[in-house]
């Protein structure tokens, strides 16, 4: 129920207003002075305040900033027996929703209350969405407990509160944009825009226009001024994905932004100031690209102030089960199937795949498998054919993915992951000699991330 607090030292008026407002279905609280009003605001979830201007312990106009400072979501309507323009102007400046005269404007109170309540509800929805967005893109949503992914998360959390430029490296599909969003969300810029652009998705000229904007008439089809994504991200964060694909002359213009905080729109000679944090990502080996003349050395040193390498999925086998379970839930919900778990042989097949497409490939495989499986269970034959045919060689023999040797490899890998690579502890838990463990690690070509 929506709550209204009436602050007025005239008890009869308070009682009358309370009756009228209660009939509209609102909960009504009453008080006769500012001190007790603050207590009620602290004790109750008030949405709208109806406040007299002249009160025994203060002035309603001056009281508005105090309410807004502690309770920014509350809307305030001021009531006065003697309305005057200066007080009304000051009240609005101080943050009042409206300012009305008692008696003459009594018929306006209920419509005003409804409009104020609409504004409060809209603000609450925005806060809920911001909270959900923050939770969606927080570090807590990055799935995995392997040492490789925890190291990357630890680095990202340390750099997030700063304005330092970040370079995310790793293979395609390792979750670079997820990390970029988490860094932004944990930064002081989280309330501002996060803007992402894939540098490989545009031609050189179009990418320049997208990034920096253009003036009307700068090229054929430019009929009006257009803001670029750097301006859209002003005071926020811009994520430049696939940075290694950017043309050399455009790299020089990006370097200017990094060095001066100024950009030149296409067709304009006057620079535009921007305050943007840059997070870049690439799956290329940029030092090698620099050696070959494909990437500017000066830009590389400016963009790689803080590098975070993201591990490939094959380097974090311990996380496959958690990731697969997450994608299973998403796909099952999308397809209205009641599949809640992953069978052992299905999981074994996932854990033995090399995953060249990394997490993105895993997501697609799970979605395909859910679609092709029955309503209640994942079917092994719903996996792509390369999973079903995958085999491993040991002592010159071809071993299927589901024989005893393969199961032993998976078990050793799980225990090794559990001990974070501690081979002495692993051997102890497996009940075998340390030398036997080393031999099996070599036989099965097992490595711990």
CATH topology of the largest domain: Rossmann fold
Q: What's the CATH architecture of the largest domain?
A: 3-Layer(aba) Sandwich
Shape: extended
Mean pLDDT: 86
Provide a concise account of the structure shown:
The chain is 47% helix and 15% strand. It has a five-stranded parallel β-sheet, sandwiched between helices. It has a five-stranded parallel β-sheet with strand order 9-12-15-8-16. Strands 4-5 form a two-stranded antiparallel sheet. The longest helix is centred in the N-terminal third of the chain and has 28 residues.
How is this structure best described in words?
It contains 19 helices and 18 strands. The protein has three domains: 3-132, Rossmann fold; 139-311, P-loop containing nucleotide triphosphate hydrolases (Rossmann fold), CATH 3.40.50; 314-443, Helicase, Ruva Protein, domain 3, CATH 1.10.8. The chain has 449 residues and is α/β, with parallel strands linked by helices. 47% of the residues lie in helices and 15% in strands. Residues 391-402 have low confidence and may be disordered. Helix 10 (248-260) packs across helix 12 (297-303) and helix 17 crosses helix 18. The protein has helices at 11-22, 34-43, 60-70, 85-93, 109-136, 147-159, 176-185, 204-212, 229-232, 248-260, 286-291, 297-303, 320-335, 344-352, 358-372, 385-389, 404-418, 423-430, 434-443; strands at 3-7, 27-31, 48-52, 54-55, 58-59, 75-80, 98-101, 166-169, 194-198, 213-214, 226-227, 237-241, 262-263, 272-273, 277-282, 306-309, 391-394, 397-400. It is extended. A five-stranded parallel beta sheet has the order 2-1-3-6-7, with helices on both faces. The protein has a five-stranded parallel beta sheet with strand order 9-12-15-8-16.
